[in-house]
């Protein structure tokens, strides 16, 4: 099967199209996802191709969107809903935390809600306030939600397909600054099951652990480090919940040093969870404390200041330099 | 008359001027006097100029984005002029022209869209809340400000703005209910411009009108032609006076139209046709009031020049103030998170300062 070059936005669109075509229970809805095709065009052409019942605009209410999705899922459908931006999902948090995440547990497994909540997230696009939040920790901290995030078009395709197929509710965090980045994708490749991290680059000296928007930063840092003679490995988590301890720990044990890179504020975050897990499991293999490069503990900055907040290559390389190398 | 009927809006939106600028029967709505209408006209010209200038600054890459109120200027101006100095305005992202009409420094208003900071003006100075982006959330704050004013024995009225799409959010309904239960002096002013980005009104509501939504909460609803500057001002002034006199909240729906795309980033050809927009261009609020004033021979050449010059001065001020290369200070990132930076924030501020000094910045 020949591969194709698609942007992440196109890959997500393809995943929705293929799911709608294969499974009549799949329904896509949200704000502006119909004729407009979504503000990021992820649902472009779906209403025209599959009809107004399969892909439709709702009234403007996120709690309503997610709440209705719960009911539709209870009644045998597979809703895939779009939150327009990270911070505009907050009105839906009540539905997500109290119902989406809990209904299986509350009903002793009798009711399941196989729905997908797509959330364009994180910054780096010069967006004004409320358009750039890294909100993954809220979801990851809520037991009952799977939380996944792609860094490549191919992963975007497969993570969305697998999320739709999952019997559990999934929050798909889409790094919006990567929507337009292109990559090779082979839709006929067998999909990896949800929950698996992947080693994006082999390396012997230290491991960079990244997810979503920071994966390209990690790869760029590894490239720069190679020029200086340091061989960095890059792990792309892909899934925050469930967490792939096996892949991550095997990677860290192989190098003995690690830096976690995330855009979100570091305090009480996914990045702090990663450091804790790695330290608990790999302590005897570690030559240095696991370091973090994350966003500061501040509300997301205005466009002209975001570059000071976002983890960049230099900050990552500084953290790597700090990993107590023997020659220092 | 059954009690709920007193809460119902009129069958048709209230009007004082028709599209040709002729006086029509306004169902008892008082016509503002000519002096006041000239003031409204001046503000309309400035509001239009503000919209055009901001649009130009976006095209030049000097503003990140601008949600224009082109075509909605009668609502923008009415909302600002209906208030007294001690009153409060709660605007949205689309209400830049209203905020400027209320007297806030245009450059401070544009801080947000220049990407320098979030809210650029001091909300207490002209009693204008930060422009709200999360839809309908500010409406509850408006109720809180109004309720606090009542508790403190002040006669403040709060004007709370939102769009048609925002009326679908839960917060809109909670705000109306709270305001009604506490008889809070809030005028909820909905600019129904027929669209929420691409989604037409029919997808927001199956009610006979948005003003009808007040009935269920015990809030009287009124409908007004949102492109009739005289009627908008008159309806809002009456609602403000009623609220100030202890009459409780009002819900006013202005029927208007978003002439331009949602923002410069939006492509409205994907969801509406030019045929739909054209008739609304003909209902332009500026030309309507201008025709009326001309017919009354109230708009002298001298007055016109004065008005145009005032508008041009605001535009020139915007062009000069929105300067490229003026960069906000990175240290400010840590300055306003808490009353005092936490130890962790102090550490992070020092980290960034050190990093920047190494880069020679
Ligand atoms: C809670 C929330 N959800 C979604 C958005 C994204 N959004 C910004 S403006 C808009 C449309 C709002 O339409 P309307 O209330 O009619 O106001 P208009 O833009 O027409 O003035 C949407 C969906 C938002 N800002 N806040
Ligand atoms: Mg609207």
Automatic annotation (TrEMBL), chain B:
Entry keyword Oxidoreductase: yes
Keyword annotations of the record: Oxidoreductase, Pyruvate, Thiamine pyrophosphate
One Pfam family it belongs to: E1_dh
In terms of superkingdom, the source organism counts as Bacteria
**GO BP terms in the entry:** branched-chain amino acid catabolic process
* E.C. no: 1.2.4.1
Cofactor(s) listed in the protein's UniProt record: thiamine diphosphate
Q: State the SUPFAM superfamilies in the record.
A: Thiamin diphosphate-binding fold (THDP-binding)
Protein's name according to its UniProt entry: Pyruvate dehydrogenase (Acetyl-transferring) E1 component, alpha subunit
Q: Which organism is it from?
A: Nocardiopsis alba (strain ATCC BAA-2165 / BE74)
Lineage at the top is: Bacteria, Bacillati, Actinomycetota, Actinomycetes, Streptosporangiales
């Amino acid at each position: 099967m020949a591969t194709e070059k698609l942007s992440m936005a196109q890959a997500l669109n393809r995943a929705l199209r293929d799911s709608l075509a294969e499974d009549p229970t799949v329904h896509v809805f949200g704000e502006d996802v119909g004729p407009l095709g979504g503000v990021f065009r992820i649902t472009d052409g779906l209403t025209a191709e599959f009809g107004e019942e399969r892909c439709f605009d709702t009234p403007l209410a996120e709690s309503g969107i997610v709440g209705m999705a719960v009911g539709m899922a209870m009644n045998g459908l597979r809703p895939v809903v779009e939150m327009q931006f990270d911070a505009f999902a907050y009105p839906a948090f009540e539905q997500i935390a109290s119902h989406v995440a809990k209904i299986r547990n509350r009903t002793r497994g009798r009711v399941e809600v196989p729905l997908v909540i797509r959330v364009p997230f994180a910054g780096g696009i010069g967006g004004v306030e409320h358009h750039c939040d890294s909100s993954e920790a809220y979801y990851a901290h809520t037991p009952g939600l799977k939380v996944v995030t792609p860094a490549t078009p191919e992963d975007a395709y497969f993570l969305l397909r697998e999320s739709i197929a999952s019997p559990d509710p999934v929050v798909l965090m889409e790094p919006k600054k990567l929507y337009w980045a292109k990559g090779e994708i082979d839709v006929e490749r067998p999909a990896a099951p949800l929950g698996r991290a992947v080693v994006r680059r082999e390396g012997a000296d230290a491991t960079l652990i990244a997810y979503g928007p920071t994966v390209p930063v990690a790869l760029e840092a590894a490239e720069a480090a190679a020029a200086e003679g340091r061989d960095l490995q890059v792990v792309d988590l892909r899934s925050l919940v469930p967490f792939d301890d096996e892949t991550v720990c095997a990677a860290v044990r192989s190098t003995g040093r690690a830096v976690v890179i995330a855009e979100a504020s570091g305090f009480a975050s996914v990045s702090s969870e990663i450091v804790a897990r790695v330290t608990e499991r790999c302590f005897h293999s570690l030559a240095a404390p696991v370091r973090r490069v994350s966003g500061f503990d501040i509300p997301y900055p205005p466009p002209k200041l975001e570059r000071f907040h976002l983890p960049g290559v230099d900050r990552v390389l500084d953290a790597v330099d700090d990993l107590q190398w023997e020659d220092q | 008359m059954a009690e709920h009927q007193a809460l119902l809006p009129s069958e048709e939106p209230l009007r004082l001027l028709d599209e040709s600028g002729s006086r029509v029967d306004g169902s008892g709505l008082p016509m503002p006097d000519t002096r006041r209408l000239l003031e409204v006209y001046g503000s309309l010209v400035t509001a239009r100029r503000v919209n055009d200038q901001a649009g130009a600054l976006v095209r030049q890459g000097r503003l990140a984005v601008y949600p224009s109120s082109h075509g909605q200027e009668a609502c923008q101006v009415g909302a600002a002029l209906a208030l007294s100095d001690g009153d409060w305005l709660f605007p949205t992202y689309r209400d830049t022209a209203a905020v400027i009409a209320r007297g806030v420094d245009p450059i401070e208003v544009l801080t947000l869209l220049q990407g320098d900071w979030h809210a650029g003006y001091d909300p207490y100075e002209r009693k204008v809340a930060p422009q709200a982006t999360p839809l309908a959330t500010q409406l509850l704050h408006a109720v809180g400000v109004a309720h606090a004013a009542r508790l403190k024995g002040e006669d403040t009225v709060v004007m709370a703005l939102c769009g048609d799409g925002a009326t679908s959010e839960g917060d809109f309904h909670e705000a109306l209910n709270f305001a009604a239960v506490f008889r809070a002096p809030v005028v909820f002013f909905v600019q129904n411009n027929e669209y929420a980005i691409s989604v037409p009104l029919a997808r927001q509501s199956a009610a006979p009108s948005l003003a009808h939504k007040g009935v269920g909460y015990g809030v009287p609803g009124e409908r007004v032609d949102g492109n009739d500057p005289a009627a908008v001002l008159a309806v809002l002034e009456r609602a403000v006076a009623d609220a100030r006199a202890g009459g409780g909240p009002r819900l006013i729906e202005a029927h208007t139209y978003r002439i331009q795309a949602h923002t410069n980033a939006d492509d409205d050809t994907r969801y509406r046709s030019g045929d739909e927009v054209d008739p609304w261009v003909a209902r332009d609020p500026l030309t309507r009031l201008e025709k009326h004033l001309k017919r009354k021979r109230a708009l002298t050449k001298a007055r016109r020049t004065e008005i145009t010059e005032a508008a041009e001065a605001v535009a020139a001020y915007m062009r000069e103030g929105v300067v490229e290369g003026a960069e906000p200070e990175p240290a400010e990132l840590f300055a306003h998170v808490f009353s005092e930076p936490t130890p962790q924030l102090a550490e992070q501020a020092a980290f960034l300062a050190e990093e920047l000094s190494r880069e020679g910045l």
